[in-house]
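Example 474, ligand alpha-D-glucopyranose.
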Amino acid sequence: MKVLYAVSEAKPFIASGGLGDVAGSLPAALRLRLIGCRVVLPLYDGIPQKYKDNMKFITHITVPVSWRRQYCGIFESKLNGVIYYFIDNQYYFKRQGIYGHYDDAERFAFFSRAVLEIIPYIDFKPDVINCNDWQTALVPVYYSRYYATREGFENIKTVFTIHNIQYQGKYGHEVLGDVAGFAEEDAPLLENDGCVNFMKGAIECANAVTTVSPTYANEILDPWYAFGLDSILSERKWKLHGILNGIDTVTNDPAADPALPAHFSAEEPENKAVCKASLQKELGLPENPDVPLVAMVSRLVAHKGFDLVKCVLEEFITTENVQVAVLGTGEWQYETFFNEMAAKYPDKVGVRIAFNSELASRMYAGSDIFLMPSKSEPCGLAQMFALRYGSIPVVRATGGLRDTVQDSGMNEGNGFVFEDYNAHDMLHALRRAVHGYEDKEGWAILRKRAMECDNSWGKSANEYIRLYKNLIKQ
Ligand code: GLC
C-alpha cells in the first residue's frame, strides 16, 4: 500500500505546532509497519540550510492556479528512511514565517494542486492521499472534481485529518473561481455560512475524515466545539473517525534526551531530582527538592485555558507551598500576566516568554506536575511528553486530554482530571496533585505508572492502516 502524506509542516524540517510533530513521526511509524509512506510539503525559506543541502532536484513543472500557471520545482530528500518531496515556488514560499500572509488562500491552493500534479513525475502512485488541516483541504476537492477520472490518477482514496477545527481556511466568494479555480457549480461543495470554506470542501469530498482523538471526534459534532461545522459533520458522521495521536518516543526519551542535564527512566528515576534542581536554578527559583514544581508549556492563548489560570494563580501560589514555571509565547494579556506574577513572586514563579524546544524538554523533566486546563484540545501532545518525563498532568477532561489522562483518585490512573471549565475546579484538581506530592511513596508509584504509559504510535498507526485498507477495498 502506498500513502502520500500531504502537510504544511513536518519536523525536523519546519514546525509551528503539534501538526509538525505528527507529520514528523506518523509516516515513519507507518513505514515500520511496511506501509509505503512519503510526505509532501512546501519548500519554505525557513527550512534550515543543512536540510536544503541534502535535497535532490527532480524536475520542474507548471501547476494551474485558476487561469494562471505557476512554476513548481520538485525536490526530494530522504530522512530516517522516509522520502520527502518539497514543492518549490519562491514567490509563494520564500518568505518569513510559514502562515499568516495576505495570500495564504492562493499559496495553499497552489500547494494542494501541486500535490496532485506532481504524481506522474515522482514514480509513486499513491493508493491513499492523507491531507491535513485547511492548508491541504483542497486536495480531496480537486481530486474529486478534476483528477478522479484522469489517466494515471484513477482509484486514489483521499483522507482528510482535522488537527484543529478552529482554523478552516474561510474566505470570500471571490476566492472560489479566481484563486482556487473552481466553477460556480462547485460552490455548494465549498460554501458554508456564506463563505468559501476549504475545510468544508474536504469534509464533503474526502473518502474519510479523521481527527486526532476519539473524544474530539464526538465533540466536533457539538456547536460548542465545531466553529460552525457541526451540522455538516453530523451529516457526514459515517465517514468520521477519531484516531489518537502518538509521539516519537525515540527523540522524546528522558533516558537519552540531549537537552537534559541528567538522564532517567521509569526504572531508574533518581536523576529526575537533578533535572529539577537544574531547572529551578535555570529559572531563578530556590533549589528545593520538597516544593512541588508545576509547569506549563504552551502557546499562551485563550483556548489553552489561560483565563482559568489567570483567575486563580495568585490564590494558588499564596495558599500552597509550590513553584510554578511557564514557557510559551502568545497573547499579550497572558504574557504580561505571567511576567507580572514572576516579578511579584520571584521565589515562586519562573517565566520564559519564548518558543524553545530544549527548554521545553527540561521543563517536562524538571517539573513534578504539568498543568493543561484547555477549553478544547483536539489531541494535545504536551501531556504525553509530560507523562513520559514523569511530570503528572492536571488536565481538563476534553478531547485528547480525556483520552490520555485518567484521574488517579482511586489509586489508578496517571494524573488529575477536572470536568467543567471552571477556575476553582481546576484549583481543586491542582490542590489534590500538590497534596498527593506530599505522600512521597504514593507519588513515586504514580510517577512510575505515568512514565510507563504507552503513547507511542504503535496502536494508532495500526488504526490508520486499517482505515486505509478499508477504503482501498471500497
Ligand atoms: C493541533 C491541536 C493539538 C494536536 C495537534 C496535532 O495543534 O491543537 O491538540 O495535538 O494539532 O494533531
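Summary: The first strand starts at residue 2 and ends at 6.
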